[in-house]
Queue: 2 jobs
Job 1
Amino acid sequence: MRLSDLPKGSPAVVDRVDDAHASDPIAQRLRDLGFVEGEPVRVVAIGPLGADPLLIQIGSTRFALRRSEAARVMVSAQVAA
Amino acid sequence: MSASTLRIALVGNPNCGKTALFNQLTGGRQKVANYAGVTVERKEGRFSAPSGRVLYVLDLPGTYSFDANSPDEQITRDVCEGVYPGEAAPDLIVCVADATNLRLHLRFVLEVKRLGRPVVLALNMMDAARRRGVVIDVPELQRRLGLPVVETVAVRRDGVKALIAQVDGEIPQAAPAQPDDADSRADLHAQVRALLAATVSMPRATAELDDALDRWALHPVFGLAILSVVMFLVFQAVYAAGKPVTDLIGDGFSWLGAHATAWMPAGPLQSLIVDGIFGGLGTVLGFLPVILVLFFFILVLEESGYLPRAAFLLDRLMVSVGLTGRSFIPLLSSFACAIPGIMGTRSITDPRDRLATILVAPLMTCSARLPVYALLIGAFIPTRRVFGVFNMQGLVLFALYAAGVLGAMGVGWVMKKLRRDRSEHALLMELPSYRLPKVRDVAIGLWERGMIFLKRLTGVILGLTVLMWFLSTFPAAPVGATGPAIDYSFAGYIGRGLQYIFAPLGFNWQISVSLIPAFAARETAVAALATVYAVGGDAANGAGLGQALAANFSLASALSLLVWFAFAPQCMSTLAVIRRETNSWRNVAISFGYMFVVAFIASLLTYQITSLLT
């Protein structure tokens, strides 16, 4: 599933980041920021207007991503331990 | 000792505390300029090490990756690689990493190491890391990375001792340079994971305080409420602290001008000094208090970590009109004055978003428009109640503010449709940990902003003010002339010429003439109208002038003039700051041009429609 479809608060891990088009700088930047396979992620907050942007926790860092940016990240939901 | 000077470059991720470290190392001994041809700040400082060696420190823009996405990241990479024209390659790179956020920051450390240059790693914010129970095996990290690692606490005076001792000693051996390709890039994350597993233990990923604060600050309802309160307080402070000082400075310079020239015979020279130079200086310095108060809050909000939260809350709204969440604070500042607003767009890293914000910022109703609004509304709009509750005058004032905001949204939307670059520009914004702003960092930031304004703009604004003075003073009125002197001046001629252009808007020649000094500073339009209508007494309270205006022009003309002031390209100081901040006359021409067209059409419609209805 896409990170943009992940419900708030539920844990997931990153599978991969898809390029939205050839040589997509946003996808490359997401990979550089740590959106790589096996990394745990979580949606911690959602923007008040139009449910956009999303606040994503990855490692110790929180990134605000617009939905179109988060849609590039494919994740697998995890059952909370 | 081999060399008496050493050039150090500070690099690191955004929010690693690099600038605080830079301030702690160099104190006030800093030089801020721009890199040639771009509006990226170049900050250099120096300090003397215990050995007596002078160390030059370059604070490079914060960067997530050498795969550069913006002009400032490009510069960081080029300087580190030693290929930036006119910039000597650094002798030593100090890579700064936030010890509480090593998962993100270590990857960039590995990228820097691959350049094959001498590198020292500074683990910054060690105090916060210890508080959060983060334990780092520094000797092991040092061994695995193959570069010297020192702990720093940038906000404490003794927190940089170890770093100074390290950079003052032998320059470490550089690791061999490695190629930069997609495979090795992907491999960096695996290396970071291995490093973290071997050297770092972290009880929890985030600070509990951050989680608690963000639950409120980013809450869909409370978050917006908190933001409104913060902004309300900022504006109260601007008007409570900035405005009175501005008025004091203006009055002070008039007084100084009058007294400095009391011994001189009345004549053009005295007039030049009083009205041109002292008046101009009063205008320039009068901006300073508002700029400093606004920047104080912008810096505090930025240092504390709240600014990106505000951007998060409002991003969606701003995107819909072709801007970004980061545009919000600069635009809000522009309600006080467009100059700090435009200077504040430096926090927008994306060049396209930044330019869009700069172009719409002057449409926000700045405080200098208020005297003109107050005069015209007082003279023409009846104090009638509407629907029993609203005051008609208040409604008109509100409509003018709303016109500015809606105009900016409209212009932003049109720009979004017109621009050639339709590609997606990312938000991708890190929300850093909350921090208490440090007095030193805020003070240095304020000093820099103040100096940028004074050094780079005083000349331009003063020059233009003197030019305006010249136009409205020469040629002098002939002997025995009955009309006010400005009638006979160049400004008078220009105003009479402009009147043909402005006639469809309902402006008579007196208004047209007053628009010329209004270009220097909007609020002078009131004084200029008082001059052309030859109203004696205290023009500032506007009562006499209001009556004169009411007797001389129609409601339609007055509304049209109000609308003109809401949109017109005015205040040459704003245009000067656009030139400085974008490094381009083309952008000045675009701003001036589009605002003129918008103002003309809006005033034309206002005049023609009101004339039909009344």
Job 2
Amino acid sequence: MTLELRGVSRKVAGQDWIHPTDLTLSPGSMNVLLGPTLSGKTSLMRLMAGLDQPTAGRIFWQGQDVTGMPVQKRGVAMVYQQFINYPSMSVYENIASPLRLQRTSRAEIDARVRQTAEMMRLTPLLDRRPLELSGGQQQRTALARALVKGAGLVLLDEPLANLDYKLREELRAEIPRIFEASGAIFVYATTEAEEALLLGGNTATLWEGRVTQFGPTPQVYRAPVDATTARVFSDPPMNFQPVAVRGGMARLDGHDWPVALPDGSYRAGFRAAHLRLDPLPGAIPLKTRVDVTEFTGAETFLHLLHGEARLIALVPGVQRLERGAALTLWLDSTHVYLFGQDGRLACRAPYAAVA
Amino acid sequence: MDKPVNNRAWLLVLPVLVLVAFSAVIPLMTVVNYSVQDTFGRNQFFWNGLGWFEDVLHSDRVHAALGRQLLFSGIILAIEIPLGIFIALNMPKRGFWASLVLVLMALPLLIPWNVVGTIWQVFGRVDIGLLGHTLAALGVDYNYVNDPLDAWATIIVMDVWHWTSLVALLCYAGLQSIPDAYYQAARIDQASRWGVFRFIELPKMRGVLLIAVLLRFMDSFMIYTEPFVVTGGGPGNATTFLSIDLVKMAIGQFDLGPAAAFSLIYFLVILLISWVFYTAMTAERERP
Amino acid sequence: MARITLENLAHSYRPAPKTDDDWALKPMTLTWRDGGAYALLGSSGCGKSTLLNIISGLLHPTQGRVLFEDRDVTALPTAARDIAQVFQFPVVYDTMTVRQNLAFPLKNRCLPAAEIARRVQDVARMIGMEDALDRRARRLTADAKQKISLGRGMVRHEVNAILFDEPLTVIDPQMKWELRTQLKSLHREFGHTMIYVTHDQTEALTFADEVVVMSEGRVVQVGTPRSLFDAPAHTFVGYFIGSPGMNLLDAEVQGATAFVAGTTIPLGTAYAPPKGRVQIGIRPDAARPATEGLPFRLIRVEDVGHHRILRGEVAGAAFNVTVPEDEPIPASFDRVALDPARIGVFVDDWRLAPLERAA
């Protein structure tokens, strides 16, 4: 089972909601759509589901052209941000509802409902009504309903966004397990970089209706093709600094390191976690002033002023630093990405080549 | 939206199309047909061009009816919209009383129009009606059969009684959709009751108010049954509204040509005024 | 601005509460100093919103008092409490411009026009919306609307406290960083007492000087972000703070040694012989893959970017270990070693103080 989008685009009232997109989702794969609100995640999903028709381009399911085929005829299931269940039915009846529509036999329905409920850990709750359940359990019911009919394509549109942090953490750890058991193609939209990393599989980064990159999640994270992808896939946001390259040497804050690039102006990008407090031989010293420190459990976020620019660093341990204090942070040049003036990646951070 | 690729879907629309054709399009075309022809009987028609339209447009009788109609709709909207909003604001938000009030409010809407007319016709009679008799006993000189002002008052009060619930229920639905946080924020900002209404409730009710105004306007502009039952258009022509006049012309005098032209103009006037309301009330939205 | 005291405060939504479960908020006494930044942290239904509503005056507590400085405000309505609040979903007056929105609370308090104009200008600068002052509020993005909500509170100089009810729920991750930093700067610059309700531990820890962790209507622990992380008073705090939460293992403790499933684990300090269900707790970042120590069965590795999470089991219980990005994971290992200084001991879910400190 493969889903293939060929040159698919969508225009609404003269505005490009989705720019021409080619995307192939391979059988049994987990695919994350990562991008901020209004970047086109939901629009793209609706095209995949057949809820909307593309303005141009074709959609193929298992090699067969399904463009224009109504959603009822495609084997798709969708789970939304809101917990959508039938309020007057029990959890059991909710899960059974898609099978009843398919005229499956009674015994078969019962077997499949119980099997799915077991997988979703809903067995003790089968007789309850959705509104008597917690948010996490309601969303699990919705997920079970999506999975029970054995759809080949399961679309999840920010399914955990309305859940508490801890519940989100628990379900997030469960989703890869559920996915592996189902064998379907999963498409999962999220605004959070961390969620994409935790889910693994493949990630497509979206920005203003365009898929900027698609590939295995760790690869998109560590080898972004342009500055936009790097920014979308960094939380805290990636730091950017102007860099000049002369005679094969890049220069940032008076420190030089060799790069195989023609002379010119570039933008250096580096992630918050790669800035260090302890000196490292050969690393770039960045002279900054402290603005805000934020403690988050095992680590501290430092919001720093570097000249006019703002930098964010993520350092281990508890750091109590006075506002306005001078602070030197060390950046290993192997963690620096260089982007050209057009935003394209000019030179990947050397550390990522190995990973 | 996008065109469905499956053309068989059109077949499913066919029954509705046939129904609409018989119930609306064909009668309308008949009316158009009558409006441009004249006859001297024996089913012989000849072309009259826009003659009837000119006659109707210059007719004092139609002008007077149109004037009465505009005044009536104006008064109805001026009373029912603010009153409906006021009632909606004071309805209980939840619990047993909310359900009870909702049922009570819906009652007048469930009564057939001619029954409403009959009720008020009897209610207002000086000899046996509760209202008429009480007023007479109190020394008020009230008689809707003879006094044009009393006739108007009766019809207006009747319409307000009949239809204010609709406005109130629509506004109530609009008010229910406002999250509590808005009221709380307003309390923190120390907004006055008027401020809460003006800056939170009114903006959030605008959608339903538009529907309420349009419905009440169109309905009041086409009012026929109730005044026909209560006053029959009298005394004199005091309560002869457009539709009553139209029926008199078409059925009473059998002037089919002018009546047809009249109904088309009537239709266009309603369309025009509704459009004006709609544009005026949605214009605010488009502003940046 | 004011110090806020909650005195023996409790609330029940039932008319005559009898059992413990009837109380949505169990009796608590807390003092929040003037100008502090506090967070109420807990999952939904833990009572944090009930507490916020009592402070804002929306709810009247079943028992106890709320004091602003020494003034009893328990019976005062919201409008008389001089507080500001930012809600989960942005509340702006749609038909007004940004300027009119910011001026609204001052207009209602009948301030002179010149003073209003001056303060609106000041606040617009603080929240970085000077350029948008004449734009209509309804067209703005969610984060801009939240800034306006905050600004409407900050124009009032006499405001006692600013309450935040999960204000970043509808904000994009990238914008969250900006709003949070701005909030911190504003707090530092103007020193309002701020109370921030959230279920998100990162938001609570990064925002507050002191966090109140709540569970089932009870205050479980009040402490600095650091103390909550390093020395959780209750296993719930250990689980709730940190991502993933603290690992908990059933153990036997004798003096300065713990025994888990037959393995001996040295503890940093000695403990008095505990009575009840004994567990040891350890943060995932205080454990590391090793060739000696607790037997560990690896289930899966998750790459979260700057670190990896090793999910597995120790003695049948879930156990997570985090490894920094630049540290290699041994190709095969079946043990984890724990940092003795960072192991906590819990008896019936409550933290046991070591002997030295107790003495």
